[in-house]
Amino acid sequence: MPGFTLLVALFLIGVIARSNLIATAACLLLIIKLAKLNFIFPFLEKRGLELGLLFLLLSILVPVATGRITEREMLYNLTSLPGLLALFGGALATHLNGEGLRLLQLQPEIIFGLVTGSIIGIVFLGGVPVGPLMAAGITALFMELASWLKN
């Protein structure tokens, strides 16, 4: 069964590294695969990222919805040095995420290295696994730098 061994490996790595997100994702994909619900894979591949980002944005915007962050605070933060740096950081991050998405579309096999690197970051660097997209973006940047240095 293609992909089964890699999904089991990712599940085990997730469990060993105490990364519930990786373990759960691999487990859900294994269940879909074993239940022969293969029609779900194209939907997840096409819309899974959007759904994940939707839930991420919902969780981030809760303080706005509950009124813990006011319009005045947001306006001040957009005009302060931290706010301006956040604008630059957000723009750079979304650019890198776009590059990462392109890399994952062109070379989907790179995901295993990204996940393994993320786990190393979690275990040894105290990192937080927010997903492979930023890791792919940084990898795309490194690949471009390596290509530039090579020439």
UniProtKB/TrEMBL annotation:
Main location: membrane
Presence of keyword Heme: no
Keywords: Cell membrane, Membrane, Transmembrane, Transmembrane helix
Membrane topology, from the record: Multi-pass membrane protein
Pfam families, alphabetized: DUF441 (PF04284)
Location(s) in or outside the cell: Cell membrane
PANTHER family linked: UPF0756 MEMBRANE PROTEIN YEAL (PTHR38452)
Annotated family: Belongs to the UPF0756 family.
Protein name (Swiss-Prot/TrEMBL): UPF0756 membrane protein SAMN02745218_02853
Naturally occurring in which organism (per UniProt): Desulfofundulus australicus DSM 11792
